[in-house]
Amino acid sequence: MSEKEASVIVKPFGKTKDGQLVHLYTLTGAGGAVMDVIDYGGRVVRLSTPDRQGKLEDITLGFNTVKEYEANPGPYFGALIGRYGNRIAKGQFTLDGQAYSLPTNNTPAGVPCSLHGGDKGFDAIVWHVEPLTEGETVGLKLSMTSPDGDQGYPGTLKVDVTYWLTPENVWKIEYEATTDKATPINLTQHLYFNLKGQAEGDILDHTLTLFADKITPVDKGLIPTGKITSVAGTPFDFTAPHLIGERITAKDEQLDFGCGYDHNWVLNNPKGKLVKAAALFEKTTGRLVEVWTTEPAIQFYSGNFLTDEVPSKTPGKKLCRRGGLALETQHSPDSPNQPNFPSTILRPGAVYKSTTEYRFGTKE
Q: Is 1 inside any structural domain?
């Protein structure tokens, strides 16, 4: 473990197109990891972790300017996602007998749905940020209020998300929210990993383990069918470690629908305790990240729609298809319309709480 002094430093990062100031917060962890976070969307711009030789490298996709984030919203690089992470079929749901309509901002296979909170989700607002220090652990408390009717959702929703960076190189995310009307909520973080380094090729050579033996299969519009099926004997079985590229082109209807992996795994976590959901390893650098969560599911997205038209943070280097992957802890997609999935409805008087940890390390 390196002997860095833990700190939080704040600098200007630019302005949004409507003139809001955006700040960059650099969290230096006592264990050597360094995170750059902006208050625009709570986005992680850079995340640098040591390889097995101790060399720091930025392992997440992002941009160098606010303008680039605004011009390329679709990948949701490093962003906080809300009110509802993932897809809601047709942008519609019924709650307590009342029908609600949301923006349909995504159309897989020409089928409209509402994705990641709508036209202007939590990824596209400037959060209030308070730097935190507890001993050698540094952090940020990000807060916002989503008004009643925001993107079609009912209720005034108050949200606090806390990022912690520990001396053990753990990035801990604590989500908390309250509402004054019943509303769906499904908060997540849309970080993209490339453990070789951002803009260093694709992630097909990464080894992935998912501690989940079931998925929620989807239709051609990437909406769950309502079934929960076993991964055994399919390219979706990551219960033992597999290279991501090993089966991604296999003849499989689900892979065809997603153009690769873009699916929801149901975790072996019936009681909502903090459990290991995933492990990702890259052999040339030795970098490893484990994902732990209290959530019941995780979305693995293999970056199928990334292209070299999206700029990277390194001058002269381009991103590429599958140049990063996301592991988004969550409740299952379209839960407001799927009665056999765990509920995502938050009611007045209750408190939404969720924890996810990304534990960084190395191995031989």
A: no
In a domain, residue 327? The reply is yes
User: Three-class SS of residue 26?
Assistant: strand
Residue of 200, 282, 328, 357 marked active site: 328
Is 328 part of the annotated catalytic residue set? yes
Domain containing residue 310: CATH number = 2.70.98.10
Residues 70-127: tens digit of each pLDDT: 999 999 999 999 999 999 999 999 999 999 999 999 999 999 999 999 999 999 999 9
Tell whether omega for the bond before 46 is within 30 degrees of 0, i.e. cis. Answer: no
**Cβ atoms of residues 63 and 313 within 8 Å:** yes
Split into its structural domains, the chain has a count of 1
CA distance 156 to 181: 7
What are 253's two structure tokens?
């209807």
Q: Which of 313, 287, 266 is nearest to 38 (CA)?
A: 313
In a domain, 161, yes or no: yes
Average pLDDT over every residue of 224-236 = 98
| Catalytic annotation present for 309 | no
| Backbone torsion region of residue 336, taken as left when φ is above 0, otherwise alpha when ψ lies between -120 and 50, otherwise beta | alpha
- Give me 30's structure tokens: 């006592």
Catalytic residue among 190, 206, 263, 331: 190
